[in-house]
Structures are given as structure tokens and as C-alpha cells.
Amino acid sequence: MNTPLITVKNLHKDFKIYGSPRDRLLEIILRKPRHQIYHALSDVSFALPAGKSLGIIGDNGAGKSTLLKLLVGTLQPSNGSIQVDGQVAALLELGAGFHPEFSGRHNIHLNASLLGVPDDNIAKLERDIITFSELDYFIDRPVKTYSSGMYVRLAFSIATMVRPDILVIDEALSVGDMAFQRKCVERMNEFRVEQRTMVFCSHSMFHIQELCDTAIWIDGGKIREIGDSDKVVGHYEDFC
């Protein structure tokens, strides 16, 4: 069996919930708790081998996006451990990682640099990214003027063109048009052929079954089932 690129052990993530901003201030001043604890994730454990793809499914509010943010490091766990080995490219919230005042072209260079792409390679990547995203006419406009679909086109093109070891994608693909969604699925299938590792969160059970070897069904912040994607999706659809 391949060595895991992602190993998650006994992961917990809690958030403090305040009734109002005043309660937060009073807690600081009085040094007495004025919050409730919301358990977003509880005792989540799994391992994802290199070259495999994992689908994450569940109802809204189950903790799927929280898990992805923990995997890419934008959130830190309350307890437990996460080990991720390799370069990670992520497509999470729309516009995340983009400077709104910069043009699409400038953001390509910025994101490619953050992902560790050598300067000599960025020029070639730039051409490929613009071609794939089909944003030629808009590429030199500030991204703050982009629609949600244009954000996804640019973000997905950057994330996949750098060929990371691990690709993490949230539900963002759902805002794209059908033609671009088809291109995205084709690109993700290329990743599977290249034996790259993917983590994909979606409400599209068809895409989870088509693109993922394994699926995790999260319910109320806990893993309800993990296993073959066809089997887990079938049980989740029966539940729904």
C-alpha cells in the first residue's frame, strides 16, 4: 500500500460562539467565560495514500469545509494531529488567495510564486492558465470586477496548472457553467491518471463517484462512514 500523504488522527475542532460582540469584550475584561462551545469536528481519523482521491460528503453544516481548511492549514485543530506531506494547492472559498486590486495576470504570478513555482516557469504557466481559464479578455482587469464564475475559472486553472502533489477542492466548482465544469472534471481525471492525490468536497454525488476512490460521510462533525465511494454515496443517498 502506498505511503499516506495525508494522515489525520483524533481530530477535533471547536469554535467559541458569542451571543453578541459585547459578550466577547466582557469575557476579556472580566476573564469569565461568556461563550458556548460549538463542536464542528469530533474525533476524525483517516489516512489517504499517495495517488488516491478522497471525496467528502454530508449535509450543509456537517463540518466538510472546516475539515478542508484544517487540511490546508488555514485553520488549526483544537485537538488531534494532521500530517500532510507534499505541495498542496487548494481551491476553497471564492477569491481566497487573490488580491482584489490586482489584475488576473498579476494574481497568476502572485499565486504561482506562493506555490513555489520558479520564476522561469511562470511565463509558460501564465499562457497555459489564461488559455484554460478562457479569460483572455478579462485577464488584465482587477479581479474585484470578476463574477463568481470567473473567480473559479482563474483559481482552478492556477491550482491545477502547477501540478501539486495534493489538490484540495471545495464545492466551488458548482458556480461554474456546464462547459467549464466538464473541463474541470477532465483535468481532475488527468490528475488521477498521473497518480496525484486529491481531496474533493461536493454535493454532486455523480462527481464524487466518478472522481474519488474513497468517500467520507460526515454527519454532525463525526465520520458516519468511510469506504469505497460508490458504497458510501449509496448509503448517503438512501439516508437523504
**Spatial separation of the terminal alpha carbons:** 33 Å
Structural class: alpha/beta
What is the typical, i.e. mean, pLDDT? 87
Number of strands: 9
Sheet with most strands = 6 strands, mixed
Percent helix among the residues?
25-40%
Describe the protein in words:
The chain is of the alpha/beta class and 240 residues long. It has 8 helices and 9 strands. It has helices at residues 21-30, 64-72, 104-114, 119-133, 148-161, 178-193, 205-211, 229-239; strands at residues 4-18, 35-49, 53-57, 79-84, 88-91, 166-169, 197-201, 214-219, 222-228. A 6-stranded mixed sheet has the order 5-6-7-3-8-9, sandwiched between helices. Helix 6 links the parallel strand 6 and strand 7 (197-201). Helix 3 crosses helix 4 (119-133) and helix 4 packs across helix 5 (148-161). The radius of gyration is 19 Å and the shape is globular. The two termini are 33 Å apart.
Secondary-structure blueprint of this entry?
Elements: E1 4-18, H1 21-30, E2 35-49, E3 53-57, H2 64-72, E4 79-84, E5 88-91, H3 104-114, H4 119-133, H5 148-161, E6 166-169, H6 178-193, E7 197-201, H7 205-211, E8 214-219, E9 222-228, H8 229-239
Parallel strand pairs: 3-7, 3-8, 5-6, 6-7
Antiparallel strand pairs: 1-2, 1-4, 8-9
Helix pairs in contact: 3-4, 4-5
